[in-house]
Amino acid sequence: MPTEDGAGPDLRHHGDAEVRDDGSALVDLAVNVRAGTPPDWLRERIAASLTGLAAYPDGRAARAAVAARHGVGADRVLLTSGAAEAFVLLARALKVRRPVVVHPQFTEPEAALRDAGHTVDRVLLRAEDGFRLDPAAVPEEADLVVIGNPTNPTSVLHPAATIARLARPGRTLVVDEAFMDAVPGEREALAGRTDVPGLVVLRSLTKTWGLAGLRIGYLLAARETVAELARTQPLWPVSTPALAAAQACVTPRALAEAARAADLIAADRAHLVAGLSAFAARGVRVAEPAEGPFVLVRMADAAGVRRRLRDLGYAVRRGDTFPGLGADWVRMAVRDRATTDGLLRALVSALPGPSGPPTGRHPD
Description:
The protein is of the alpha/beta class.
């Protein structure tokens, strides 16, 4: 059901706020950047670029590399200062009358649209439906539709064919694939597709490669859309070190490493989901099937659980700032098994109700 709501959740609250002040003392399960990154070889590539800082950035080589990675022409690629910049460009550059954002999802697209003066409709997916997309729920008259895949924070991976059904002549369809490289085989990806009218796909290099502080991402779209968005960008929007990172992260070596990381994330996520499911008797419910490097969890007294977990050294992301979710949701990043087991031990005392190991499994 589409809704329009200018108030409600704080759209500018993000996971980093959970660890900003005392994050060094906390195990970070609130931010979805892969732990242990960037790898040494990537640090070295970025460091080597520093000798060229006297020159203005030249993005041609990085743009060509990204284009080759997705099998499209360079004129279909726009490099951005993180994927979040792309949402601002879309909100400012495109002349749209009825933008629709499919929630729950990353809130920055709606925040950018509202900042640009747009009235935004929301299509709220429901927990009882598994947060699955029904294309018929999106109004026909919507001329801009934004959806994440896999979606942050629900971890739902929508079928590419289902998302493609949202495409219409005269409509821009924005698909945020910031976490798609964490999905084994990148199944259901639309990046590189040129047969879907109005398609704009956003990718981030900050999550898998640990480059949130460097700010590098890109979008793929029709050449006319790319040219229109580029006119809205400031001069030299992507720094030389970020351009070096973009080139490095789309090499065959990097893609192979990302594929291995995606397989490991899937295994670590299964371990986390199994551990959380063992707390079902104490009211814990995981939104399944989860396909991203994070899981969405429903529990009683979620705010209290978050506070108690902080006292025990673990930070998780509150869920109530995502439209369509209430105060009984939290998001947890997937981490290695040792970190997850520590979280599960902390949950024994952090959850409301009688303390003790979950039935059927001791979180060790």
